[in-house]
Amino acid sequence: xxxxVTSTGPTLDDMVEARFGRCPYFLIIDPDTMEFEAINxxxxxxxxxxxxxxxxxxxxxxxSAVLTGNCGPNAFQTFGATNIQVITGVSGPVRQAVEQYKxxxxxxxxxxxxxxxxGMGGGGMGMGxxxxxxxxxxxxxxxxxxxxxxxGPMPDSRGIESLKREAxxxxxxxxxxxxxxxxxEKSR
Length: 188
Fold this sequence. Notes:
Layout: E1 3-7, E2 25-29, E3 36-40, H1 50-60, E4 65-67, H2 73-81, E5 85-87, H3 94-102, H4 146-149, H5 156-186
Parallel strand pairs: 1-4, 4-5
Antiparallel strand pairs: 1-2, 2-3
Helix pairs in contact: 1-2
């Protein structure tokens, strides 16, 4: 069995990336042995369809589950057609996420948790790799947070858990952004 985890880098010690289709790396992992293959995501710069292309890539790699922070409707539909389990709201180090998966602490998502084009907005954090060249807010795209994409109020117990997962996902995104800023500052 193989699973895929979206990652900010090519190792098990990197953080889970919150965006599925536009993550920098996919780690294809055998959870029993922890052997893995790091795949640089060539779909990150696509103008559209990154989620679908990335989901098709995961299917071609024979994964049975995908662990990620967020998954939009197009990728989610592709996963459904290929019988790949999707687990959203995942954050923290990749190694820890795999351990949580193995211990049964993570549960499958039944619906996408963000709207289409979630990973493209964010004030320049799109195709330009945080260099101000992306499709930012001034170009007709808007950043959509997971809470904005939810269809309506949830029952209290599920709502609290959903909010906790969303908060953890946002913390992960913030950590990833801060790490990128530090790397850019070091390279000056």
